[in-house]
Prior knowledge:
There is one protein chain. This protein has helices at about 10-20, 25-35, 50-60, 130-145, 165-175, 195-205, 220-225, 230, 235-245, 245-250, 265-275, 300-315, 350-360; strands at about 1-5, 60, 65-70, 75-80, 90-95, 100-105, 105-110, 125, 155, 190-195, 210-215, 255-260, 280-290. The chain is of the alpha/beta class. The chain has two domains: about 1-60, DNA polymerase, domain 1 (Orthogonal Bundle); about 65-360, TIM Barrel.
Amino acid sequence: MKSVFDFGLNDWELWCSERGLPRFSAKQIFQWIFQKGGKDPAQFTSLSLKIRQALAEEFNWKLLEIDSHLISRDESEKVLLRTADDLLIEMVIMPYDNRVTLCLSSQVGCKRGCTFCQTGRMGLKRNLTSGEILGQLLIANELLLPKDRTVTNVVFMGMGEPLDNYDEVVKACRIMLDENGFGLSSKRVTISTSGIVPRIAQLGRELPVRLAISLHSADNEKRSQMMPVNRLYNLEALKKVLIEYPAPHRLGITFEYVMIEGVNDRKEDARRLIEFLHGIKARVNLIPINHFPGVEMHPSSAKRLQDFQTELTNCSIPAPVRYSRGVDISGGCGQLAAKREGELHLDPRVLHRERRRSVLNVL
Ligand code: SF4
């Protein structure tokens, strides 16, 4: 049975036309589901009884289930969600005074294997559907309801490489931006990528959202060691696509740069970065690496961070230092690996091997 959350406005228009229903019914159904967060068609009172019955009979209305919910000292919330086929994904809700940002997942795991990221150590299990991506937003809004708040910003910086799941991510984004869907501003939806060059070009042509690049080094050899994707799409190819990125979107490209002691934090690294960014209107977020089990990497010292930042700002490149939120609940940058409370200290490779083994034992 199809999930109702996988249907976009076009799908509803087709569904309605196949049943001889008026076109405006499609818009009403779409609004009930995404704008109003309705999960029970019996309550869709503006629709006829016949349509409500058809919706109840023909579709699966189950959203993702909450497996566990951790709240950080800084009020960020990490929510572990269970898919219908019993896989776990994570999202992080980050409330600020003037906005609420949702960091959501686009895949179960990731195949890109970046060395500083726990998700990369899980491997890829599968892509999420657009309904599972949007389900995270619906659940976040439900959790925020008692506080009278709602998600205002979405960043695709959770589990997965969003551009490896291009079609579903783009479909979900369109519903986020649709005034009859979530009605988010295109300036408030950010797709962050490790640098899947052909898809960046396609995204620039097709979707007006903000782009963030997970860069972390402007030296090909070093970047290839940290991010195997660089062997496929090197810095020259990445720069070319960013220079050609459509101007209105190019105005706001953000670069994420995780600061790792002795790896990518020397002045020479900063100078290479400045050279790489020449010709691109960029902002660089400097993120001291967050600790995670199984890997011996340490954040740069305060002095290194400051020296690196000064090199960039002296060349008029904004470079704020960003300390991750939710680090105490393993919800910071690079820390997501579908872990429950008692599992935060475990190496994701060991944890997921154990989970597979226990599933096989049950069978
Ligand atoms: S940083 Fe992103 S692309 Fe790299 S392994 Fe982690 S989730 Fe995948």
